[in-house]
TrEMBL record:
This is ATP-binding protein. One of its GO terms (molecular function) is ATP binding. The keyword Calcium does not apply. CDD domains: HATPase_AgrC-ComD-like. It comes from the Bacteria. Residues 1-101 form the Sensor histidine kinase NatK-like C-terminal domain. The keyword Acyltransferase does not apply.
Amino acid sequence: MDLCIILGNALDNALEACEKMPCGQGRMVLNLSKTGEMLFIEIKNTIYEEPVKNSEGLVTTKKDKASHGFGLKTIQQLKDKYDGILDYKTEGGWFVLRINLNLKDPVNYDR
């Protein structure tokens, strides 16, 4: 279930960014691989403009900020549950999100 939550939030964010691109120019790439007990997720999408960041990370660009911006925070919480790594960057007009999860022993975690 946690993997569905991670992928759902990440792909939703990527799709939203692609929708801001000029017609026909939005692109998204999903790579999943597993080595031993480690799951590697990489989602890349084209971006129209650089994401807005503050000291806490990425900032939602939606008008109703109080009701949005929880997707990446949820991914970060689940990354912690699986003693994983989350990294994101922009390069050459692409946003790249990488998540590594240790599937062996999830850390005790109460939401």
